[in-house]
Amino acid sequence: MRVAFATLGCRLNQVDSQQLQSALEARGFATVPFGAPADVVVVNTCSVTATADQGARQTIRRIARDNPRARIVVTGCYATRRPDEIAALPNVARVVCNDDKPRLLHLISAASADSTVSASFDGPCGAAVVPGVAGRTAYTLRIQTGCATTMELPAQAF
User: Where are the alpha helices (DSSP H) in 5-152?
Assistant: First the structure.
């Protein structure tokens, strides 16, 4: 099964996409570049501004138009904030809020259970580093989940 990623927004989304990509590849999925024909496209959204929301909707519509057979899985802050808006978009098969991101691997793997993807957990020791999402080879450590919606500063900070 071929999977592609559209990662929008912060470094946290980049890390989440990288980790999901690695885990899916370990289970036999083939990662294809965004825009290439894929069976599943994961869109990891941002919602820091109305423009970010609009960009996510445009990205989802473009995927549905350019790859009408793709099942689109949407996650991230916009998916958490407005799941109803996202579910109404074309080809969206699943909306996964930030708290449920750890279940993405299971959800995508389960959806492909009837396909020819074989599970493989043996990796070649000493193999060359293959770039992941956006050609990255560095590992980023996750330290937060989602955006903080409010921030209070003590009065003396001003």
Answer: 11-26, 50-66, 77-81, 83-87, 104-111
